[in-house]
Known about the structure:
It comes from Georgenia faecalis. This is OsmC family peroxiredoxin. It holds the Pfam family OsmC. InterPro entries: KH_dom-like_a/b, OsmC/Ohr_fam, OsmC/Ohrsf, OsmC_Ohr_Peroxiredoxin, Peroxiredoxin_OsmC. By secondary structure, the chain is of the alpha+beta class. The protein folds into two domains: 1-49; 51-142, GMP Synthetase, Chain A, domain 3. It has four helices and six strands; from the N terminus they run βββααββααβ. The chain has helices at residues 38-42, 51-73, 111-124, 126-130, and strands spanning 9-14, 21-26, 33-37, 78-90, 94-106, 136-142. The strands form two sheets. The protein has a three-stranded antiparallel sheet. A three-stranded mixed sheet has the order 4-5-6, covered by helices on one side.
Amino acid sequence: MPNPVVNKASTIWKGDLFTGSGTTTLDTSNVGTFDVAWRSRAEEPSGTTTPEELIAAAHSTCYSMQLSNMLKENGTPPTQLNTAAAVTFVVGKGITEIHLTVNAHVEGISEDDFQGLAQGAKEQCPVSQALKGTPIGLTATLI
């Protein structure tokens, strides 16, 4: 059995929710520290990231990995997958939906087979599994 891999991030927050701000650091990879603030989350993007943007990054990455593996196992490895995730946050309700969009360059696969694998990848992706309490939509296009 493989050893579990633990990834870490941390946040320093100063002040209250509405006027405060902070930084989030990707501790495991050490590839960056990002400013965070309520205004970007609830009002308008203002040059800082949000938990929802970080979830979108994680989800689009995980989905791409899952779909690429499923396509390879199908004998039709992708040339390229362009995946985006849109995470909707509503003040007072929280995260209300996530929508994945993938444009895939895959040779030798039928549209039906591709759509089945794309949907399966959405269901099997570990981030999708972690977020399954939230509606997750998918638009998958074979190019």
